[in-house]
Amino acid sequence: MSELLTDLSHAVVPLSSPPTGQGWNHADMVQLIGDKPRRPAAVLVGVREGVQPRLVLTVRTDHLQDHAGQVAFPGGRTDPGDADAIATALRESEEEIGLERRLVTPLGFLDRFDTISGYTITPVVARIDPDARLYPAPAEVAEVFEVPLSFFLEPRNLRRYTMDFRGHRRDMVEFVHGGHRIWGATAAMVFNLLQRMGRS
């Protein structure tokens, strides 16, 4: 395992203590969408192993109901048959990008995150075997791409801005790499990873 992946594995919430409860941004979301119950979901913050570890990301198709056309981690809502957040993240990744579960090694979790669309996401951080073949499922994913983890760790690549949403001013972060704009919930989860690594 590379030094970068070792640092990452030490920064995440341990597999033995999965996060529970509200997202770390819950108070902000209450102001925007109220305090209605959130639906559980999970995403895979997958890092493909190699000389240069890379985060695996997707571009959602334009016809989806939530977050169409946006960059996202593979993942989705929890199904009744899912044993836990890891099961959700692995199932969704297999469905969305053809990632075989045997090629994924979960490392831990990031802090839970509430979304505008009414979900509480548990981000599952995992290593992905360098030989894994990834391909988009056309019904949900327009593109699969990878970004070196070192790109996110470079402070100059983090962009901060403020946006208006339903009369509220929100402080946001984003990254732009290879023509892809990484913003919203995905950028916030990456930022949480940077915070946990002491690199924000």
TrEMBL record:
<keyword id="KW-0464">Manganese</keyword>
<dbReference type="GO" id="GO:0010945">
    <property type="term" value="F:coenzyme A diphosphatase activity"/>
</dbReference>
<keyword id="KW-0460">Magnesium</keyword>
<protein>
    <submittedName>
        <fullName>NUDIX hydrolase</fullName>
    </submittedName>
</protein>
<dbReference type="Pfam" id="PF00293">
    <property type="entry name" value="NUDIX"/>
</dbReference>
<feature type="domain" description="Nudix hydrolase">
    <location>
        <begin position="37"/>
        <end position="169"/>
    </location>
</feature>
<dbReference type="InterPro" id="IPR045121">
    <property type="entry name" value="CoAse"/>
</dbReference>
<dbReference type="GO" id="GO:0046872">
    <property type="term" value="F:metal ion binding"/>
</dbReference>
<dbReference type="InterPro" id="IPR015797">
    <property type="entry name" value="NUDIX_hydrolase-like_dom_sf"/>
</dbReference>
<keyword id="KW-0479">Metal-binding</keyword>
<keyword id="KW-0378">Hydrolase</keyword>
<dbReference type="InterPro" id="IPR000086">
    <property type="entry name" value="NUDIX_hydrolase_dom"/>
</dbReference>
